[in-house]
């Protein structure tokens, strides 16, 4: 795998020719048009097929995978465009294997809302170990609000992906969420009600596990957090579910390298099956985004936690969402507008902006003028490669991806070329398995 940074005057055709790869496949894999006007500084992921197969009349995904001793999931990961259509056709080429040797195995945990498009979901599931469905909200009184999630759970299990329920405090602001969490941690009666309501919902569904996110903990409540997680994990296991938790590193922690020892990371690691270390502030657009914080700061905190928790139980979380900020930036006043990778590249191309890469934060950025001066920061293939390398260096088991509500071609190209993506559930039913030449 090569991550190519576009230079002035380069085109999809000239880049493909310089690497000796197919123009159509380079465009297809990166999710762009072969005639696209590339932005200076944007990245393209270059992969080199080792084994290609020419589809014959009567072939199906099952027959092709079986003939080459690979799984259907691997075939779909190597050819994600197949999820966008109903049939395969004689004469088209499929990638059976790329030249890159896998450097290890990894679990991937993608966050999604239950209203994710069905085609997008089916295209993404081959790359996932877990899908975290966002979100069942709990209230300050211990009620748990239900969610229409039957279809996403059923489809995930069909692809051998484990569905995980996300639990989040119902609040309109961080201050309200602190109050909700405080009530839950300090009142055993509310905990009892919360756990009973949770079990009543779970019994009617087909979840694999439950992940509770508690990002804001008052200093006086931190010792109670461990006790609550012990109750939470014990009850889930009694009912046959896997307990997950999310630890959110906020911008203050990343800037100061201060971690809260009284959270007892080592004990938490023994209590639950899976811990996701989130490296971003999610849901609040007025806060300084961690894409402006040194990547070394995250490395320092992550390695501290890795030293306390079994890395097989850990996942490093990151965001696929970029932010646009109107300048001048005023902390607590300027509101960031979220944007996908694809949206960021479209803006760079439209305004003919030059994209720069900040190696300290592992973020790409550019400035442009539209009524006012703006700066846009986002992650591209280079950031994904850096995060994946950090996980590999620390023997961390997985990656948590916020979110998968759009198909991030470059991210999946990087991860699929380097890692065998683990599945914890068997393939159940794959509707695409009956694809023929039509």
UniProtKB/TrEMBL annotation:
Instruction: Decide whether keyword Hydrolase is in the record.
Output: yes
Q: Which ranges carry the LysM domain?
A: 2-46, 51-96
| CC per GO annotation | endomembrane system
* The UniProt record lists the keyword Transcription: no
Q: List, alphabetically, the SUPFAM superfamilies matched.
A: (Trans)glycosidases, LysM domain
Q: Name one GO molecular function term.
A: hydrolase activity, acting on glycosyl bonds
PROSITE patterns per record? GH18_2, LYSM
- Provide this UniProt record's keywords sorted from A to Z: Glycosidase, Hydrolase
Entries under InterPro entries matching the protein? Chitinase_II/V-like_cat (IPR011583), Chitinase_insertion_sf (IPR029070), GH (IPR017853), Glyco_hydro18_cat (IPR001223), LysM (IPR018392), LysM_dom_sf (IPR036779)
Any one biological process term the GO annotation gives? carbohydrate metabolic process
Domain GH18 residue range list: 101-418
What is this protein's name? LysM peptidoglycan-binding domain-containing protein
UniProt organism field: Herbinix luporum
Q: Where is the organism placed in the taxonomic lineage, from the top?
A: Bacteria, Bacillati, Bacillota, Clostridia, Lachnospirales
